[in-house]
Write a structure and sequence with these properties.
Six copies of one chain form a homohexamer.
Chain A lengths: L13 E6 L14 H8 L14 H4 L2 E6 L7 H18 L2 E6 L5 H12 L2 E6 L19 H7 L3 E11 L8 H7 L3 E4 H20 L3 E7 L21 H8 L6 E8 L10 H21 L1 H4 L4
Parallel strand pairs in A: 1-2, 1-3, 3-8, 4-5, 4-7, 5-6, 7-8
Helix pairs in contact in A: 1-9, 3-4, 4-5, 7-8
Chain lengths: 300, 300, 300, 300, 300, 300
C-alpha cells in the first residue's frame, strides 16, 4: 500500500482515495484522521496473501490519488464534494477503493458508482445496518447511507447482503426498513452459525454476477480486533473470520470498494489501522482475481 | 443505559447502582472508577438486542440510583456499607444491577439478596473462582466473596455454576474448596467444548427455577475483549460466546445482578466499558424476559 | 515467574534469561524493553495451570538469570554475545527460556542449543516464516533467524513445523525456501481447520521424540490478543487456541524455549506482556511434564 | 464542583452548564466529550483556593444544570439551540459558567448575555484570536465567534482584551480585524513581559467596571499544561501564570463565563480536565468576590 | 540508580528502598507500582549532575534493598510493617531513600527516623499540606502523615517547612493546623515570588543544622511535569525550579529522604518516573555533599 | 508545512527532508517514525508567527523532498547514505531542514554542509552535549555526532554554542571534551539566568556572521513540553523560552538546520510533534529573515 502517488490518475484498475471526514459521526469522532493513519501503518503490507503466486501489483495497476478535500462542517457539501470527486475518478479509471472517513460518504460512493454502472448489488459488512432515517440537521449522518441509497434507487436492495449486524435496536427499527426492501441481513450470530463458507455461498447466491459494491465498516469486527472506531459493538466476528470471507469476494463481480470508520484516536497500538490496511489489500487482490482470472488461476 | 436518575427509588423492577471501590484489589487498581466510566460509555446503548420486539425499558422500570458512598480505606466498613445500601434498595424495589467496583462487593450483594430471598443459586462468570481464603489484613479481598458466601450460608453451593475459570492454581487450590462444596466449575476450555447451548443446558439443569444471582466479573472475557480489568487472564472466551450465553439467563429465575472489576485505567479505547454496558443491558433484558414473559414472547 | 534471581546459575532445570534487544527490528521497535515489562507483569502468575496437581516450581528448579548485556547498535556483536551467554548457561544447566527481544536472537539460541544437542527439531509459532534472506547492512535482521539456522545446519529442517503463518508474501517468497528444505508450514487458516488436537498430532508425528526447540513469536497471536509487538499480522489464532496447543508440548522432547518480540511501547494495557508471561509459564510446565513425567502424571 | 444537579434552576447565582459539541472544530475533534470529562475529574476540587476564608459555595449558590442537547451535525441549529438554552437560564438566574465544547458556542453565550446585559466587555484568554471569517459550509466554526460577536454588536470591542495570542498568522490576518475594531491584543510574549500584575492592570484599565464576559479557551495554556485540546499552540503561558491572572477577575464586574475546547481524546492523564476544573472553580470564586465583596473581604 | 541489589544491607551510607503501596490513596490509585516503574526508568541516570567532579557513587555507598512487602488492604498493618522495615535498615545503615508508594508511608519513615535521631526538622515539598485529620476507616490516609507526625512528637514542627502548597481548602483547613503548630508554609505562589535562592535561604534559616528529613511528594511539580500522580494540582512550580531548590539540600543536615506518590498508570510517556529518578539521584548527591564535604568541595 | 512534495528539487531556498532512523538510539527508540508524525501534525501550521507581514512561503521557496531511505540496521551505511543524499540536495539547492530521526545523523548533515561551506559555526540546542566517545559496535551512536564533527574538522569548535545542557555526567565527562576544544556550553540553568536576550547576545557575539548550522534536539525542551523523545531530561527550558531564542536566529547567518529526536511512541497527545513543527517553521522563517532582509524588514 505504499502505492505510487498520482493525484490525477488515468486508466488505472483501482484508485485508492482518502476521505478524511467525520462530520456524520454521531458518537466518537476521529475518522477524519483515518486515511492518514492507514497510510502510516501500510508500511507493513508488502504484497497480498500467502501462497498466491504473483503479487497484486503485478496483476493490476493501482495508485494512491491522495485525499479528497472535505469540509468537516457541512454534510451536504461534503457528500456532494466526495461524490463529484469519485465520479471524476470513475470517468478515467475502472474502480476505486475509498479509505474513510465516516460511513456517510458511502452514499457519495454509491452515487458515483451508480452513475457508471446503474443500480448495483451491495455486500455490506458492518455491525450496524445504516438504514436509519435522517435526523433534524443531520440528513446524511453515518447511520443513513444505505437508506438514502435504497430511496434514491442507487442499489438493488434485493441483491444486497448486510453481514455482521448486531447490537441494540428496539422495534420498530432500521432492520425492518432494510428487510422490508428485500435486503438479506446476516447477523453476527448467524454468521457464526453459517461459517465462512456458508456465508460466502449465501452471498454468491444472492448477488450472482451483478456488479457489486463492497463496503466494509471496520466496526464489523469485534472491538477487540478494531478498537479504533466510532461506534464499537461487542459480539462481533474475529479478524480471521472476516478476512476469510473477504477472500471469496473475487468469486463475485466487484466494481468498487470502501473501508470506513477507522478512528485513530482510539487506536493506541495501531491494530485497527493495520487491520484496515489488510482489508484494503485483500480487496485489491480480489479485484485482480475477479477481473484478471488468468493471472491468478494458479492460486487454487 | 442513560437511565433516569433517582437516588431513592421505590417500586422499580431493577435499580442500577454504582459501587466505586477497589479496596479489595490485589493487583491492578482502578475499579473505583468503573461505574463512572461505564456511565460515560453507555451513550452507545439505545435499547437491547436486535430482533426482539419492544425495548427493555418498555417492559420494565429501571432507574439509576447513583453510586454508593464507599471508603477506599477499610474493607469491613465498605462491605457493610454496600450491603446496607443494597438491602435498603431491595426493601423498596424488586432487584438491582450493581456496577463495580471490585468483586469483593459481591459478598455485600449476596448478603442483601439473601436477606430477601434466602439462600440463592448463583451463576458466576469469571476467570477466577474467588473462593480463596482471607489474608491477614485483607479478610474481604476480591478473591474471597464466594468463599465467604458459602461459609455464611448465603448461597446454595450445589446450585452454583462458575464458568470461564482458568489460570494458574497449584494444588491444593481454591477450586478444591468450591468443588468440595458442590459448586460446578466449568473451565474456559470446557466452555469451548460445550459450546454456548451445551453450557446453557448445563446451567439450567443445575439451577432450575431457583432464585439465581448472576455475577459477571468482566475478566471472564479474554483480555483482548476486556483489557480494562485488574487481573486479566489470557485464554478466555470471546465476547460473542459470553454474550450469547447471557442471552439464556432469561430461561432462569434471576433476582439480582452485578458486573464487576472494570478498571478504566487500563481501558484506553473504552472497549471494556462498552462491553460492560452491553453485559448490563443484556442482563436487564433477561430480567424482563424472565419476569414479564408475555411482553417478550414474540421474540423467538 | 517472580523467580529467584541468580546471575550465575548451576545445575538448574530451566534458566530464564532476558534478551533486551531490538537491533534486528525492521518496523516497530521496542522489543528491547520486552524482558523488563514481562517481569513487571509476571506478578500475576503464581503457578501454572488449573487442575494439575503440584505447581511447576515444585517439579523443576527454575531461576531468573537476569538480562544479557546486548548492544543495540551492531547485529554481529549482539548475535555473538547472546550465543556465548546462552552457551555458557547450557554448560551448567539443562535448558533455558529466553525472553526477547527481537526474533533475530533465536539464531543465537539455536547455535547454543546445537552446541549441546546437535541439530534439533523445531516448533516455531509465528505469523511470519522468518526464513527471509539477509539485507545489506542487516545480515541478522529479525526476518532471518531460521534461514540462517537451516543454512548453518543447526536444525533438522524436515523436523521443523512453523505454525500460524499468514500475511502477505508475493511469490517467490520465504515460504518457498522453508518448504524447499522440508519445513512443514501450517498457516493460520490451516491451524483453524485442523483444530488444536489435529495440529498437535501433526506436530508430534513430524517431530517425534527428537530434541525440539520451541520458539514462540508473540505475533503468532492475532493483534487483538498481542497488540504489543513489532509486526502485528491480523487474522491470527486466539489466545485460547495457542495456549491449548502449547499444553501439548510436554508430549514432545523439548530442550529449549524462547518467547520473542514483545514490544511494551504498543502494549498500553499490558495484555501482551501478561500473555507472554502465561506462554513462558506454560512452557516451563511442559518442560516439567516432558522430563519429570511421574510428578505430573496425575494431571490427565 | 460535585455540585447539586438541577436541570431547571431558578434564582441561582451561577449555573454550571455543559455544552457537549465539537461541530465547529477544524482540526482535532473530541471537545464533545469535554463536559463529561470535566465532571469526572472534578472530584479533586473540594473548595476554591487556599487562605481565602469561607468556601465559594458558602458565598454563592451554584448548581449544575447538566448538558445542553446539541446536534453534532449542523452549526446553525447548534448555535441557536445553545443560545436559547442559555437565555432561558439567564432569565431565571444571575449568571452561567459554560463548559465546552468548542469555542464556536461562545457566540451563543454572548448572544444570551447581550440579551440580558446589552453589549458587554470581554476578557478572552486564548492562543487564537477567533476573529476569522466564516468559511463555506462553516459559518460558525470555532475560529469565528468573536468576529460574529463584533459584527452583531454583542460586545464592546474597545473594551475587549485578548490575552495569550500566539502562533502563525501570515498578514493580513485575523488580528488586523480585531485590532481594527479596537480590541487590545496581548500576545503570549507580551504577557510574559508584563507579568501577571501588569496584565491585570492593563485589563482593569481597559474594562473598568463594565459588565464583562470571561471566555477561557483551554489552549491559552501551553500544550504541556493542557495537551487535551483541538488546536494546541506551543509557546504559551504556564498554569501558574494564567491561574494567577484569573485570581484578579474579581476586581472586574464579571457577568458570565466559559471554559472551552477541552478534548479528552488527547488528555490521557486527565491533566487538562483537572486544569479546566480549576479554572472553572476559580471563576466561580471570582464571581463571589466581585458580587459579594463583604463575604470575601477577609481574604486579603 | 541501577544500583547494586542487596536485600540486607549493612554499613551503607544510603539504602534505596521501595514501598509499593497505595492503600492510603483517596483519589487516583496506582502508586503501588511507583517503585517498579522508577527502577525501569532509572536506566537514564548514569551519574548526578553536570560540572560536579566525581560521581555520587564514588563518594558514598548506596545500594538498592528492593521492596518492602506491604499489604494493600490494611493501613495499620502497612504503616507498621514499613516502619519496622525502615527501622531495621537504620539500625545497620546511615540513611534511607524511600521510593513510594503513597504519602501515608512517610509516617512510617518519620517514626523510624525519630527512633534513631529523635524529633527531626522537616523539609516537605508538596502541593498539599498532608496535615488533615484521620477519616473513619482511614486513620492513616495519604493526607494525614504530617499531622500524625506532629501529634506523635516525631518532628520539630517549628523547624518544618512545607513548600509548593496550593489548591483548594475552604477555611478552617489543614493549613491552620500546620501553622498553628509553627510550621512555615510556603505556597506555590510564594515560592515563585521568593525565587529559588530566597526559598533556600528561608529554609536554611528555619532548619539550621538540625537533622532534617526531606520528603518530596511528586505532585509538588505542576501536573505538566509530573502527570503520573494521584492528586495532581495545577499551578505548581516547574522541574527546573524544584530541582534547583533540591540542589541546596546539601547546605542542610539531611538524615533521610523519600520521593512519593508516583503513579505510573497516569504516566504514559514515563516523564514522571524519569523526574522522580532525577529527584532521587539529586537527593543522594546532596547527602554526599552534606556529609562528605571534602569530596565535593571542588563543585562550586 | 503542508509543503509541495518534490522528490528531486532544484533551485529551492530550503528543502525539507525526512530522516526516519533510530539506529543510533541508546535508550528509547521510535525516532524512526519522527518525520512521519511531524508531517501528520503539520496541518496545524498555516504560516509562521504573528505580526510578521508576509508569510514565509511568500518569501522563500520551500519544498518537501520526502524521506531518505535509511537502513535501521547499520550505522555506517545509514550515516553515509544520509550524507550523500544531503550533499546531493545541497548541490542543487541553497539549504535543507532535516527532520529526524536520531541525532547521529547530524554528522551526515555537517559533512554535507562542510562540503559546501567549509568548517561552519554551530548553534546546538540540546539537553546533552553529544560529544561522547564511540562505543564498541556503536561508532556513530546518537551521543557522538559533535565529537566526530570536531574530530573531522567539519565545524569551528570555537564558534560553537551548545545551549540547554543538563543532566548527569560524573567527571571526567563529555563537557570536558567540548570545552577543551573551545565550545561554549550554556547549561539550562545558565540559560535561565541569562534570559532569552542575554543568550541571544552571547550567541551572536560568539558566532558573528559565520555560516552557522542550527541543530535542535527536541529534548532541549523540558519533558513536559516534549515528552516524545528518547532521552528526556528534566529541568529544561520552556517552549516559550526556546521559541523566543529561535526567533533571533535570523540575526545570524544560518546555512542549514535540523530538528531531531522526535519519538512519536512517547507522544500520545502529539504535543512533541506539534512543537517540532513549530520549531521547523520558525527556522524556515529565520532563514528568510536572514537571507531576504528586505522582505521581512517591516516586521520589527
Amino acid at each position: 500500500m505504499r502505492l505510487p502517488h498520482d493525484p490525477a490518475p488515468r486508466g488505472k484498475d483501482v484508485v485508492v482515495i482518502g476521505a478524511p471526514y467525520d462530520g456524520g459521526t454521531s458518537y466518537r469522532p476521529g475518522a477524519r484522521f483515518g486515511p492518514q493513519q492507514i497510510r502510516c501503518e501500510s508500511g507493513l503490507i508488502h504484497g497480498v496473501g500467502i501462497d498466491r503466486g504473483p503479487g497484486v501489483f503485478d496483476l493490476i495497476e493501482v495508485v494512491d490519488a491522495g485525499d479528497i478535500n472535505l469540509t468537516p462542517f457541512n454534510q451536504h457539501i461534503a457528500i456532494t464534494t466526495a461524490q463529484e470527486h469519485l465520479s471524476a475518478l470513475l470517468a478515467d479509471n475502472s474502480a476505486f477503493l475509498m479509505l474513510g472517513g465516516d460511513h456517510s460518504l458511502t452514499l457519495s460512493a454509491l452515487r458515483a458508482v451508480h452513475g457508471r454502472h446503474g443500480p448495483v448489488a451491495v455486500l455490506h459488512l458492518d455491525a450496524h445496518s445504516d438504514t436509519n432515517p435522517a435526523m433534524i440537521g443531520g440528513e446524511f449522518h453515518h447511520g443513513t447511507p444505505f437508506r438514502h441509497a435504497i430511496d434514491e434507487g442507487l442499489v438493488q436492495a434485493d441483491a444486497m447482503v448486510q453481514l455482521g449486524i448486531r447490537g441494540h435496536n428496539p422495534k420498530p427499527d432500521s432492520l425492518d426498513y432494510a428487510r422490508g426492501h428485500g435486503v438479506r441481513v446476516v447477523t453476527a450470530d448467524e454468521f457464526a452459525e453459517l461459517g465462512v463458507r456458508g456465508a460466502a455461498d449465501l452471498i454468491r447466491e444472492r448477488l450472482g454476477d451483478r456488479p457489486v459494491y463492497v463496503s466494509v465498516d471496520i466496526d464489523v469486527f469485534d472491538p477487540a480486533f478494531a478498537p479504533g472506531t466510532g461506534t464499537p459493538a461487542p459480539g462481533g466476528p474475529t479478524s480471521r473470520e472476516v478476512l476469510a470471507l473477504l477472500r471469496t469476494v473475487g468469486e463475485l463481480n466487484p466494481v468498487g470498494f470502501d473501508v470506513m470508520e477507522v478512528s485513530p484516536l482510539y487506536d493506541h497500538a495501531g491494530i485497527t489501522s493495520v487491520l484496515a490496511t489488510e482489508v484494503g489489500a485483500e480487496l485489491l487482490y480480489q479485484y485482480a482475481r475477479a477481473h484478471h482470472p488468468k493471472n491468478t488461476e494458479e492460486e487454487e
